[in-house]
Design brief:
single chain; alpha/beta; TIM Barrel; eight-stranded parallel beta sheet; about 15% strand; binds pyridoxal-5'-phosphate; Pyridoxal phosphate homeostasis protein; Ala_racemase_N; pyridoxal phosphate; PLP-binding_barrel; pyridoxal phosphate binding
Length: about 240
């Protein structure tokens, strides 16, 4: 695969168009409308110019997973981008992230009370609108530092819901520690949603599922995903490897 393709004019925007089509088809196969599945274009490691190209083609929803990178890129890009933070967030970076990115719309990786609390305080201090959050669940069954255990997700969701400046909007999973996913990961997140909705008394369509990446987003949509995070299929392969977790 030619990694330089994404750097060519128009390549990323064209790739996005084909992703949009595939998402629409997968949504139809699962008896949902395309509007029910959000595409987060994951632009980590990619230059502002390429993000701009995808923006100019009409897309508004982008994801980054390193705080420093997002803090540098966001001010160089239009304010009506809806940024999703999808990386591991250390609590001492929460304030920097919130203060530097006014159009941060979602943090998808809340996996303990401490980080929820730090984000809540940062938003309160800034006086901005509430921050939407996903609770990240470790669905791999393997010991991993990231994501709450499925058995603990109800408690964390309740904690998030009690925070004044956070808006709970759903559950997120990465899948396996190597960033691949299995149908079991998607099924586990689906089951977590049932428990959460029962426990806090909300309908399932008010609890989103963020799952699926480049390699498996169609399957994820067929298994209920409402938010797919797609990087390399839109922007081309990343030039340097994923940060070692
Ligand atoms: C990088 C990343 C993605 C996108 O991965 P691709 O396989 O390039 O689509 C999705 N989710 C998270 C959390 C990521 O870090």
């Amino acid at each position: 695969m030619a990694t330089s393709a994404a750097a060519m004019d128009g390549a990323a925007a064209a790739s996005l168009r084909s992703v949009v089509q595939r998402v629409h088809q997968a949504a139809e196969r699962s008896a949902r409308t395309p509007q029910q599945v959000r595409i987060v274009a994951v632009s980590k490691t990619k230059p502002v110019s390429v993000i701009r190209e995808v923006y100019d083609s009409g897309h508004r929803c982008f994801g980054e997973n390193y705080v420093q990178e997002l803090v540098e890129k966001a001010p160089q890009l239009p304010e009506d981008i809806e940024w999703h933070f999808i990386g591991n967030l250390q609590s001492n970076k929460a304030k920097l992230l919130v203060n530097s990115v006014p159009n941060l719309e979602y943090v998808e990786t809340v996996d303990d009370e401490k980080i929820a609390n730090c984000l809540d305080n940062a938003v309160a201090n800034l006086g901005r609108k509430p921050l939407k959050v996903f609770v990240q669940v470790n669905t791999s069954g393997e010991t991993s530092k990231f994501g709450v255990d499925p058995a603990e997700c109800v408690d964390l969701v309740k904690y998030v819901k009690d925070r004044q400046c956070l808006e709970f909007c759903g559950l997120m999973t990465i899948g396996m520690p190597d960033y691949t996913s299995t149908p079991e990961n998607f099924k586990t997140l689906w089951n977590c949603r049932s428990e959460v909705c029962k426990a806090i008394g909300i309908p399932e369509d008010q609890c989103e599922l963020s799952m699926g990446m480049s390699a498996d987003f169609e399957q994820a949509i067929e298994m209920g995903s409402t938010n797919v995070r797609i990087g390399s299929t839109i922007f081309g392969a990343r030039e340097y490897p994923k940060k070692q977790k």
